[in-house]
Amino acid sequence: MKLILAQEVEGLGAPGDIVEVKDGYGRNYLVPRGLAIGWTRGAEKQIQSIKRARDARAIQGKEHASEVKNQLEQLGVKLDVKAGETGRLFGSVTPADIAGAIKSSGGPLVEKRAISIGSPIKTTGKHQVSVQLHPDVAATVRLEVVAV
């Protein structure tokens, strides 16, 4: 089965790649989860827009990753959340929340999949999270979780 990846699939490819997979894997796993779409001539046009969006977000090389790392490590990220009187959160902080907080703090656009949280953040206060910018470059972001 020939498919076009809509999202990155580990061990298979990046968004916009045309891949050949077994019928069952494509029909039962990739397509229902929105990870891939069926390949057609019309879908080839969609590949171009997916690749352009990926190139706009992608970090270009190790030098660019180092620049973004310096930018992230100097940035103080503040995240407003709902919390109880004792400082415990209603739920926990997700990588998507952190990516949005980095963007709203004036930082660069960061993929939520690149953010690694050691243990779940369920309390207010100061925390550190890791952002994998490049296979060789990772940044540590200081995150302050504040109750609203």
Automatic annotation (TrEMBL):
InterPro entries: Ribosomal_bL9 (IPR000244), Ribosomal_bL9/RNase_H1_N (IPR009027), Ribosomal_bL9_bac/chp (IPR020594), Ribosomal_bL9_C (IPR020069), Ribosomal_bL9_C_sf (IPR036791), Ribosomal_bL9_N (IPR020070), Ribosomal_bL9_N_sf (IPR036935). Residues 13-40 form the Ribosomal protein L9 domain. One of its GO terms (cellular component) is ribosome. Keywords: Ribonucleoprotein, Ribosomal protein, RNA-binding, rRNA-binding. SUPFAM superfamilies: L9 N-domain-like, Ribosomal protein L9 C-domain. Signal peptide: none annotated. Belongs to the bacterial ribosomal protein bL9 family. NCBIfam families: L9 (TIGR00158). Binds to the 23S rRNA. This is Large ribosomal subunit protein bL9. The gene is rplI.
